[in-house]
Amino acid sequence: MTQGPSTDPGVIDLLGLLAYAELGSFFRLADDAGLAPTLRAKGQLAALAATEQAHYQALRDRLEELGADPEEAMAPFVAPLDAWTERTEPRSWLESLVKTYVGDGIAGDFYARVAGLADDETRLLIEGVLAETGRAEFVTETVRGALAEDPTLAGRLALWARRLVGEALSQAQAVAVQRPALARLLAGGGSETSSDVGDLAAVSRMFASLTEGHSARLRAMGLAD
Amino acid sequence: MTQGPSTDPGVIDLLGLLAYAELGSFFRLADDAGLAPTLRAKGQLAALAATEQAHYQALRDRLEELGADPEEAMAPFVAPLDAWTERTEPRSWLESLVKTYVGDGIAGDFYARVAGLADDETRLLIEGVLAETGRAEFVTETVRGALAEDPTLAGRLALWARRLVGEALSQAQAVAVQRPALARLLAGGGSETSSDVGDLAAVSRMFASLTEGHSARLRAMGLAD
Predict the structure, then answer these.
(1) pLDDT tens digits for A78-106?
(2) Phi-psi region of A134 (alpha: psi -120 to 50; beta: other; left: phi over 0)
(3) pTM for the whole thing?
(4) Interface touch B23/A43, C-beta < 8 Å
(5) Contact (CB<8Å) A46/B26
(6) Among A residues 22-61, those touching chain B with beta carbons less than 8 Å apart
(7) Could A53 and B49 be called an inter-chain contact, meaning their C-beta atoms sit closer than 8 Å?
(8) Fewer Cβ neighbours under 10 Å: the N or C end of chain B?
(9) Which chain B positions have a beta carbon within 8 Å of A23's beta carbon?
(10) Is residue A4 part of a domain?
């Protein structure tokens, strides 16, 4: 089921972006475990991280199948994704949980939106990666429990969630500018006649629409009415 | 296949020790990835870490099957294993690789030695965990390659390997003193008539014999003749 060199460079970009996002998520979860209050929570984070590693492996394998060099495909996304991680370093266990939930939520919405843009095999892979979550309950219950004990936390955590989204949108814009083939794919075009500026505007609209799911997630954590 | 409250407390101790060793190894590998020189090596470390997480999960599940609280079973081993990790913080990618190889080697020899001491189901589990390695080649090739480029590294890395073993034996002794039921199991006794001091001496002999495999591993890395 391999594809020749005719594969859309936007798809290679997309797979590279998703693969490095999963690898980065693996290391972030493992790192945040230092903030976990119990041995049990540490083990739960390790399990979440291992799931991300499996996703990374599947995406990396798909890049190889398509004849791409996986590390080369990931390279353009290392700086923007690392920048997001560094600019949003959690200072507490709760901030770390909110970051996981908000970050996964945005990633999930993004995956759902882009899956249909790639070839069938890549689409099935992305949908498979997307389906395999299930951490939401663990996070929302822990955050709601903490808010029940100390309602004054809500304001600070809501601001934190807002900052996470803002930084993500900012990095996404930078990526769209730097990777025209990816921007064209995300704009839903794929046609050579689409203009660069038109693609960027379409990508902006897509990312803006991703924030709709964000409000629902804030409510699930008890951080919005 | 659960066992009642009659399970040897030494077996619960052993499973708790192995489970926390795997969880600690997961976090150590994820942490050391910061030292990895390439994106590809980072991904390889993530894969190794995910394997450790799967082992941790299997050992944790077995503790639950036996009716034990997994976190309670792991608790006595958190301090000594964390102490080993902290006292042997690698300062370079090569030191990190040597630590992984030496640490895994000692752990593997230990697993092989103790598997036969537990009940059949636990033995099969430990042997399964043991069989699923395969990182040795990746490490030995990388270390040998680095030595070929700079032979003066050999002395420093050999000292480093010696320190890793010394610190491991020291922590193992502390554990044997603090956990008499485990010491009795490891001494091969299990009989109530064995003496505490006799058990400690037997455990010391067992740990001393583990260092035999260490020399072979040093040779495989090119760190001994």
Answers:
(1) 999 999 999 999 999 999 989 988 888 88
(2) left
(3) 0.86
(4) yes
(5) yes
(6) 23, 26-27, 30-31, 33, 38-40, 42-43, 46-47, 49-50, 53-54, 56-57, 60
(7) yes
(8) C
(9) 42-43, 46
(10) no
Residue of B nearest to A40 (CA): B71
As a dihedral over the C-alpha atoms of residue B57, residue B59, residue B63, residue B64, rounded to 10 degrees, the angle is 30
List of E strands, A89-201: none
CB atoms within 10 A of CB B192: 6
- Give yes or no for residue B1 having a pLDDT over 50: no
The residue type found at B151 is: P
Do B141 and B207 meet the contact criterion of CB atoms below 8 Å apart?
A: no
Amino acid identity of residue B212, one-letter, is E
Residues A74, A96, A138, B72, CA torsion sign: positive
Q: Which residue of A has its CA nearest to B40?
A: A71
Q: Which residues of B touch A47 (CB under 8 A)?
A: 53, 57
CA A100 – CA A44 distance, rounded (Å): 13
Cβ-based burial of A37 (10 A; exposed 0-12, middle 13-18, buried ≥19)? exposed
Asked if A43 and B49 come within 8 Å (Cβ–Cβ), the reply is: no
The CATH number given to whatever domain includes residue A156 is 1.20.1260.10
Name the nearest CA neighbour of B20 among B66, B65, B83, B67. Answer: B83
ipTM, two decimals = 0.84
**Domain carrying residue B158:** 9-220
CA torsion B92→B97→B98→B102, rounded to 10°? 140
Interface A-B, measured as beta-carbon pairs within 8 A, has a size of: 69
Interchain pair A71, B46: CB under 8 A: no
Q: How far is A194 from chain B (nearest CA, A)?
A: 34
Q: Which two three-digit tokens encode residue B46?
A: 């993530």
Cross-chain residue pair A33–B47, CB shorter than 8 Å: no
Residue B1 included in any domain: no
The answer to whether B188 touches B202, Cβ cutoff 8 Å, is yes
* Position A214 in a domain: yes
Q: Are A33 and B27 an interchain contact pair (Cβ–Cβ within 8 Å)?
A: yes
For residue B121, count CB atoms less than 10 angstroms from its CB and return exposed for 0-12, middle for 13-18, buried for 19 or more.
middle
Domain count, chain B: 1
Identify the closest residue of chain A to B34 by CA–CA distance: A27
Mean pLDDT across A115-132: 80
Contact check, Cβ <8 Å, A71/B40: yes
Q: Which strand (E) or helix (H) includes residue B68? A: none
Of the given ranges (A33-47, A144-158, B161-175, B185-199), which has the lowest mean pLDDT? B185-199
Q: Per the domain annotation, does A2 fall within a domain?
A: no
